[in-house]
Amino acid sequence: MTKTILRANVLFLLFSFYLSLNAQNISDRIDSLVHKSSFLKTSEVGVLIYDLTAKKELYRYQAEKLYRPASVEKVITSVTALSVLGKDYQMNTRLSYSGYIEADTLYGNIYVKGDFDSEFMPDDMDSMIKAISNMGIHSVKGRIIGDVSMMDSVYWGPGWAWDDTPETFQPYLSPLMLNRGCVNISISPSGGDKAKVEIMPESDFYTVNNTTSLSGGNLTATRNWLYNDNTITITGNARHKAGVSMNIFDTKGFFMHSLRYQLQENGIFIPRDSVTFGEVPENTKGIITVSRDIDEVLKRALKKSDNLSAESLFFHATREILNGKKYLNHKDGQEAIYKFMRTDIGFDNRKFRIVDGCGVSDYNYVSPELIMEYLKYAFHSPSVFHPFYDSLPIAGIDGTLKHRMGKGKTFRNVRAKTGTLTGVCSLAGYVTSPSKHTIAFVIINQNVLRYVAARKFQDEICSILASFE
After folding, report:
1. Residue 462 to residue 134: CA distance in whole angstroms
2. Whose CB has fewer CB within 10 Å in the chain, the N or C terminal residue?
């Protein structure tokens, strides 16, 4: 019996010594990489590596310092949202009416209760139109009212760049979003002087100024975003078929006027001046509810690093944490994130600054230590970890890692959230070692001019970790 115990102790000591040597080897290799990378002479980096299986820190370098996170902040948003909302949570856009129906006329109002569904698309609006049509309504003697009481009227987050509009990655935020607050423009030769222009979704909320010609120069499509103008101007010569997308100013107006327009196109008459906004009364009668699973929003937020989806998660989590509060703003979101950070993550929020859900703002400051705690929290919470892990980009396969780490031991192995902002390149996630250990890592490069160098540096660290025995 004594010999058996002694042998077990010896084996344990040998195994511990082996792990210690291996961890030291990992530390030495990453440390060498940090000190030999020439681009770090003019930039900064924070690195933290943790073996979740062995519950042991493997490496740290400036991990307590503050950095702008860029889109790795979506790790904080996603983990918080999954924790407080649950993996089965749904976003619900509700259509209802007041008054009564006589013959083919509704004598009352139609209401749309916005729920910040970032994935509400034209097909969903078609479902609403079909539901109204199936009631036999062909005329509305009342108003069509949008309820946007979930959020206040400030449509961008603090510190967002005003000149990022009219790009699709920065739509105007609202509880009522149609087609992600954007239009898709298709331009093609028509056989005549002017090009053929098609814009979806169809609406009278925007106008088209088609000045294309056979003698024109390069094809362009834009709107006067500086003056919040929704006149889409297309110039140049359409030699080949082309497509472009852009955001539209005032997404709540875009949603409601598009609904009214498309109802009219389907034989349901509502005057153009009948569109307005207000809260839905309690006694309305339901017509249809368009529901969206959180999983669909989560996957776009993480795999495609989509800002709108992340903001949707941010505000839904905020509403839950603040017990259903209405007219939410980003300050409320900050309060909610800080509350979860203190009570569930166990970190002092006064050491950090988080002002939005997507990481676009230059006002955000986090540390690799903080991001690591969210990765660890998720790993130890199965109901959070499984949907979170499944939604992360996979190296060499999909999302923002589709064209990175496409060979070797990192291929299909690394699952991580990328982040890119002016001067910032970050990566945070998980990798599995050959010994089946799950290793979490956070790498935030700051003051970077050449993103290629930063990404190569991050990929090399992941390669070292993927080889960790």
Report:
1. 56
2. N
Strands, sheet with 220-223, edge to edge from the N-terminal-most edge strand: 207-210, 231-235, 220-223
Cis amide prior to 166 (ω within 30 degrees) = yes
> Among 22-26, 342-346, 438-442, where is mean pLDDT lowest?
22-26
Phi, psi of 299, rounded to the nearest 5 degrees: -65, -40
CA distance 301 to 282: 33
Q: Class assignment of domain 23-87+295-466? A: alpha beta
3-state secondary structure at position 404:
coil
Cβ–Cβ under 8 Å, residues 237 and 255: no
Residues 6 or more apart whose CB falls under 8 angstroms from that of 290 comprise 92, 93, 95, 117, 120, 124, 127, 128
Strand order in the sheet with 44-51: 56-61, 44-51, 438-446, 424-432, 415-421
Map residue 306 onto helix, strand or coil.
coil
How wide is the angle at C-alpha 15 spanned by C-alphas 12 and 20, nearest 5°?
125
Are 19 and 11 spatial neighbours (Cβ–Cβ below 8 Å)?
no
What number of helices (H) and strands (E) belong to the chain? 10, 19
Read off the tokens for 11: 């084996």
- Summarised one tens digit per residue, pLDDT across range 324-368 is 999 999 999 999 999 999 999 999 999 999 999 999 999 999 999
